[in-house]
Amino acid sequence: MNLLLWITVGFIVVGLFVLMSMKKSMEERVALAIENKDGMEGKQTSTKPVVWWIVGATVWGLASMLLIVWSFSVYV
């Protein structure tokens, strides 16, 4: 198998594993932020990790699509 195919499959599998392992903690952070949206000044709840998780998931998805398209253009 070509190195590009291994990189593509590895990137997608590792990315899925990381996103799924972080999903539960991000759901808890969002629930805590919604629960304390009026009194967030006194609490140490930050939504920045959730925003960065969403940005990272979006970038991972776009990079995965780019790698898949690139792989198809190489193998066809």
Description:
The chain is mostly helical. The chain has one domain. The chain contains two helices and no strands. It has helices at residues 3-35, 48-75. Keywords: Membrane, Transmembrane, Transmembrane helix. The chain crosses the membrane at residues 6-22, 50-72.
What are the salient characteristics of this protein?
single chain, about 80 residues, mainly alpha, elongated
The total tally of domains equals: 1
Structural class label: mainly alpha
The total strand number stands at 0
Helix content: over 70%
Low-confidence stretches: none
Mean pLDDT across all residues, rounded?
A: 88
Strand content: under 5%
Gyration radius (Cα, Å) is 17 Å
Q: Biggest sheet: strands, sense, closure?
A: none
Number of H/I helices: 2
Distance between the ends: 14 Å
Topology readout:
Elements: H1 3-35, H2 48-75
Helix pairs in contact: 1-2
In short:
This protein is mainly alpha-helical and 76 residues long. 80% of the residues lie in helices and 0% in strands. The chain has one domain.
